[in-house]
Amino acid sequence: MSDMANRIQVGAATFSLYLGPLASSAGGFENLPTIMDFSLVTNEAAYREIFQSMSEGIIMVDETGNIAIANRVAEQLFGFGPGELIGATLESLLPERYRKGHVNFRKAFNADPHPRRMGFGRDLTALRRDGTEFPVEISLSFTQVQEQLLIMAFISDISQRKQAEDALRRSEEQLIVYAAELEKKVELRTDALNQTISRLEQQVVERKRAEEETRRALERERELNELKSKFVSIASHEFRTPLSTVLSSVSLIRQYKERQEYEKQDKHIDRIKSSVNHLTLILNDFLSLGKLEEGKVDIQSETVVLSAFLEEIKEEVQSFLKAGQVVTTNCPSALEVWTDTRTLRNILFNLISNASKYSDSGKKIYISVEHQGSRVIFQVRDEGIGIPADDQKHLFDRFFRASNAGNVQGTGLGLHIVKRYVDLISGEIFFTSVYGEGSTFYVSIPQR
Ligand code: ADP
């Protein structure tokens, strides 16, 4: 191994450099060159040069806080020329507001000096000669020269880093603002979307309702048409008998008039009356049903004194009773009900008319009213032909006639209409009947 000692110059300093291969008994590394040895940096000029060429500002102060040495970078940082910082107080490099506190801080450091970073966790601010401030980062150390304590401060201007940090913070803040705005926008859009959805849902509901209404109107229309054609067929059938009765009775009356047979004339006049009554009943039924189907029946409630009301009805039904049929009424004298008189009259009139039609001459018809709780219950009882058990469930169907109705004239509409009237005044209707013995119809309505 041969010595290859050399010397190099850095500024005013001279370095001794040793270049040589590494020895290895195992072999293989003998020719590896260049390991630098700085141990031979010797003179003061070299230290000075290192001190001056440091990239950080370095200031050394004595125990009283006066600057003993400052390197070029430190001078430039604070805006001073070469040597101008020497003798200045360290506090003169701080903004006024920190100076007092710093004196105490410095004393504490002097009492217990140890290398550390200054102002960890908070921003430090230094003051330039021209009065402007700038952010700095400072590390502290100390040394003992000729038994005098020297404090070293390593100072970096962190303006650029701060600017970058500030810019980053601003971007972050901006980002947060954007995010919040975005969230707001999403919220607004979601709201708008929800509103649109609920509007659409509403429209769907309305459309469905309109469709349902149209369907119901069509259904009603279809039923009315059906009713009209049924009316034509029933009218042509049902009107034929009474009209031919009227015609034959009229020509017979003429004959009996010439022969002056007054009793026979009266008999045919009665026949005409009953035929006309019957025609009127049929027409009334059709009119009522037509109005009900079109929803044109108004309900106007009023107080009805029932005893008087029943007496009136009893009077009215006399015109169609068969020979010897008697109507008896039974009603508590003060009983009143709050309802639509015309509808109630139609209901009872219809039931009494049936009781008469489906009973023989000379039979009795009983009408009674009683008060039960909040309701009033009417009964119309006859001693007629009764209703076969199998037919009873269809009794309120439109155009239904029981199998024993035989040649009793009728359209099968009366009870259907009665049921609809009863519904209109919030009532209920039911009946009991024994085939061949008679029937009782019950109508229950609220008293008020
Ligand atoms: P109609 O015009 O045929 O009398 P309704 O609707 O009034 O029509 O009655 C339907 C059917 O119910 C009648 O055809 C009849 O068979 C039966 N009916 C109704 N009331 C009575 C009653 N009081 N006694 C026996 N049968 C009755």
Tell me the major beta sheet.
6 strands, antiparallel
Helix content: 40-55%
Which segments are poorly predicted (pLDDT under 50) over 5 or more consecutive residues?
1-40
Strand content: 15-25%
The averaged pLDDT comes out at 87
The Rg value, from CA coordinates, equals 61 Å
**Number of discrete helical segments:** 9
| Amino- and carboxy-terminal Cα gap | 132 Å
- Overall 3D geometry? rod-shaped
Please give the number of β-strands. 15
Which ions and ligands are bound to the chains? Answer: adenosine-5'-diphosphate
From the helix content, strand content and strand pairing, which structural class follows? alpha+beta
Order of helices and strands: EEHEEHHEEEEHHHEHEEHEEHEE
Task: Characterise the protein shown here.
There is one protein chain. With 448 residues, the chain is α+β, with helices and mostly antiparallel strands. It contains nine helices and 15 strands. Strands 3, 4, 5, 6, 7 and 8 form a six-stranded antiparallel beta sheet that branches. Strands 10-12-13-15-14 form a five-stranded mixed beta sheet, covered by helices on one side. Helix 4 packs antiparallel against helix 6 and helix 5 packs antiparallel against helix 6 (262-293). The longest helix has 80 residues, at 159-238. The structure holds adenosine-5'-diphosphate (ADP). Residues 354-355, 358, 382, 384-387, 395, 400-402, 405, 410-416, 439 line the site of adenosine-5'-diphosphate.
Ordered list of secondary-structure elements with their pairings:
Blueprint: E1 5-10, E2 13-18, H1 44-53, E3 57-61, E4 67-70, H2 72-78, H3 96-111, E5 116-117, E6 124-127, E7 133-145, E8 148-157, H4 159-238, H5 240-258, H6 262-293, E9 302-305, H7 306-317, E10 326-330, E11 336-339, H8 341-357, E12 364-372, E13 375-382, H9 414-424, E14 428-434, E15 438-446
Parallel strand pairs: 10-12
Antiparallel strand pairs: 1-2, 3-4, 3-8, 5-7, 6-7, 7-8, 9-11, 12-13, 13-15, 14-15
Helix pairs in contact: 4-6, 5-6, 6-9, 8-9
The structure holds adenosine-5'-diphosphate (ADP).
